[in-house]
């Protein structure tokens, strides 16, 4: 393992943990759920340490009465990153009442385009997005449309949760969520934020959302994944963006791909999510936390 | 005794309510005048700092000791077209505002679709074109946020602390057509002030509020503004991403973003009276030619009609 690549990233995460136990998007900034969840996943091997436990307690404190997590201590709203909190609970094998409440909230939440009124409206008008409203994914926040990234993260979380929680509605939401991802695939073979065309004109995919869509589709019975994985591999080879390369490496390694390691000379940036993702993307860095239990690579 | 409301009693009350609501819906039109400067610029290799200093001077903008945020338009990168504000203009603005004594100048943007803002900035040439770019840049999608009350029908709405603390926000859009809003100019560019970390990618909440309504609400919120519109090469047709480059050879400046956008429309051969967000902004900015003090070039003299999508042909200025 290239410790020379992984170690400085883990050290940077430890160094930039906030006094409240969480992580900001950037050093010295307020703690948010998203960077805190990724940092705790990346530092999972420290999970017995007081510092890690402090971060964990902070993250747990952001759960709302309705079961959702809020994005930080200052924005009292339900948030898509609830999915990351559930994935982190699964990584730590904690399946308590808070975990179940979070799973229930995810199962009950869907994009507002699938509400009855929206579907009735869509029946009598031409949808400008062309989305098939039979398939229900997840929005960034309640009251908005479902998109690829929150749907993919929620599928990862719910598939991991099925080991502990069974239920027909949970299984149904997984199938419907996978269906949404499959039907929003761009003509170039990948995925963007979730619109394959605008006003009838095709839109291109992005590397990072292609990686996330594939993570969400792990274990899907409907998906024909090998062509998409080949496309993702080409994106990984061609992409200069470190953010994209990290997500593609996490995704491709989750599917068992053998990728060359990134050069040890590449230093961590001050973007703490990127630092955590680059740590998770290493061969032994924790990409497995995004793989549903029981799904083989 | 229960109150008994008959249909006859209800009708006058309903009529009165409609009348009141109609009166409420017609705000007082903006009564002042606003300077807008239009300068010719043939290419990004010209002395853009000099152009920007001229534009600032012509509009009477005071910069000294202000915390300035430069807000370019970074959307996607496609080498085949001209989606983003050219980095040469952004670098020149950084230099110009610093030279005028701003207490700080920060480049800040929160793209609507792409999470990898720094990667996008790299693709768009910002890392190469702006010295120490990372030290001068804030990703507004992932900045810390604070709430404001009563925004566009929402009890509270969150904005990045960097823009809430700014004394002056300089909107630096690309001059483009837009497949939903008709045009995307200095006012629409403020969609990038909305934090993705709260509202997502895309910032779908704005679409639910309404695109025009959101543009107007954000621009009502942020009033200490200036615009530098990159019209050297803009975009026509299916903008803001899939259109084709359109050379217009202009830079447009002004403190009143409504007046700036109305002027840009006239340069693009678009009737500003037919752009919904501009008509909705008529109470806080100048839209008519009579209210806009044109400085520099006459917009009619530099007019170059931007190609419009089929559904927007009716926007064409006579």
H/E element sequence of chain B: HEHEHEHHHEEEHEEEHHHEEHHE
Helix fraction bin of chain A: 40-55%
Report the structural category of chain A: mainly alpha
**Percent range of helical residues of chain B:** 25-40%
CATH architecture field of chain A:
Alpha/alpha barrel
Task: Offer a quick outline of the entry.
The complex is a heterodimer of chains A (297) and B (318). Chain A has helices at 3-15, 33-42, 50-61, 82-91, 97-108, 116-124, 148-161, 168-183, 207-216, 225-238, 242-254, 272-280; strands at 197-198, 201-202.
Structure description:
The complex is a heterodimer of chains A (297) and B (318). In chain A, strand 1 and strand 2 form a beta hairpin. Chain A has a two-stranded antiparallel sheet with strand order 1-2. With 297 residues, chain A is an all-alpha fold. Chain A is built from 12 helices and 2 strands, in the order ααααααααββαααα. Chain A has a single domain, classed as Glycosyltransferase (Alpha/alpha barrel). The mean pLDDT of chain A is 93. The radius of gyration of chain A is 19 Å and the shape is globular. Chain B has a single domain, classed as LarA, N-terminal domain (Rossmann fold). In chain B, 31% of the residues lie in helices and 24% in strands. In chain B, the strands form 2 sheets. In chain B, strands 1, 2, 3, 4, 7, 8, 9, 10, 11 and 12 form a 10-stranded mixed β-sheet that branches. The N terminus of chain B is likely disordered. Classes of the chains: A mainly alpha (297), B alpha/beta (318). At the A-B interface, helix 11 of A face helix 4, strand 5, helix 8 and helix 9 of B.
């Amino acid at each position: 393992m290239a410790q020379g690549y992984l170690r400085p990233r883990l050290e940077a995460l430890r160094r930039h943990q906030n006094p409240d136990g969480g992580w900001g998007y950037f050093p010295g900034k307020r703690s948010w759920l998203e960077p805190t969840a990724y940092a705790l996943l990346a530092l999972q091997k420290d999970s017995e340490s007081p510092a890690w436990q402090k971060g964990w307690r902070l993250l747990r404190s952001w759960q709302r009465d309705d079961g959702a997590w809020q994005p930080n201590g200052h924005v009292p709203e339900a948030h898509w990153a609830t999915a990351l909190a559930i994935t982190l609970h699964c990584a730590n094998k904690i399946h308590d009442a808070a975990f179940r409440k979070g799973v229930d909230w995810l199962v009950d939440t869907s994009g507002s385009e699938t509400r009855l009124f929206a579907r009735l409206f869509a029946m009598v008008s031409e949808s400008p997005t062309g989305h098939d409203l039979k398939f229900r994914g997840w929005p960034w926040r309640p009251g908005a449309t479902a998109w690829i990234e929150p749907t993919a993260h929620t599928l990862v979380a719910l598939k991991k949760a099925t080991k502990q929680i069974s239920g027909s509605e949970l299984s149904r939401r997984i199938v419907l969520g996978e269906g949404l991802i499959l039907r929003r695939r761009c003509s170039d073979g990948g995925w963007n934020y979730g619109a394959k065309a605008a006003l009838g004109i095709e839109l291109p995919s992005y590397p990072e959302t292609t990686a996330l869509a594939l993570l969400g589709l792990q274990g899907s019975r409907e998906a024909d994944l090998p062509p998409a994985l080949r496309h993702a591999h080409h994106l990984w080879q061609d992409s200069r963006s470190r953010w994209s390369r990290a997500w593609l490496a996490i995704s491709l390694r989750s599917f068992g791909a053998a990728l060359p390691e990134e050069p040890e000379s590449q230093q961590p940036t001050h973007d703490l999510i990127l630092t955590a993702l680059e740590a998770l993307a290493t061969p032994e860095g924790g990409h497995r936390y995004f793989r549903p239990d029981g799904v083989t690579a | 005794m229960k109150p008994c409301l008959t249909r006859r009693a209800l009708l006058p009350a309903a009529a009165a309510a409609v009348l009141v609501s109609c009166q409420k819906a017609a705000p007082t039109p903006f009564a002042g005048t606003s300077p807008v400067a239009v300068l010719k610029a043939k290419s990004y290799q010209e002395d853009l700092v000099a152009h920007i200093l001229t534009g600032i001077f012509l509009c009477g903008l005071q910069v000294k000791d202000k915390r300035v945020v430069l807000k370019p338009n970074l959307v996607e990168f496609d080498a085949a077209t001209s989606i983003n504000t050219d980095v040469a203009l952004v670098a020149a603005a950084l230099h110009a505002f610093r030279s005028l004594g701003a207490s700080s100048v920060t480049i800040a943007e929160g793209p609507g679709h792409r999470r990898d803002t720094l990667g996008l900035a790299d693709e768009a040439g910002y890392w190469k074109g702006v010295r120490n770019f990372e030290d001068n840049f804030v990703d507004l999608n992932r900045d810390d946020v604070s709430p404001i009350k009563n925004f566009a029908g929402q009890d509270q709405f969150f904005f990045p602390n960097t823009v809430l603390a700014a004394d002056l926000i300089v909107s630096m859009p690309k001059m483009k057509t837009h497949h939903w809003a008709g045009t995307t100019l200095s006012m629409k560019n403020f969609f990038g002030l909305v934090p993705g970390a709260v509202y997502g990618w895309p910032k779908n909440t704005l679409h639910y509020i309404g695109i025009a309504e959101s543009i107007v609400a954000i621009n009502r919120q942020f009033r200490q503004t200036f615009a530098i519109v990159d019209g050297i090469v803009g975009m026509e047709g299916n903008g803001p991403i899939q259109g084709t480059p359109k050379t217009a050879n202009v830079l447009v400046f002004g403190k009143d973003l409504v007046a700036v956008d109305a002027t840009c429309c006239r340069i693009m051969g678009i009737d500003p009276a037919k752009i919904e967000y501009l008509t909705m902004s008529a109470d806080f900015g100048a839209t008519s030619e009579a209210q806009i003090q044109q400085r520099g070039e006459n917009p009619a003299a530099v007019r170059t009609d931007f190609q419009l999508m089929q559904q927007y042909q009716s926007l064409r200025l006579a």
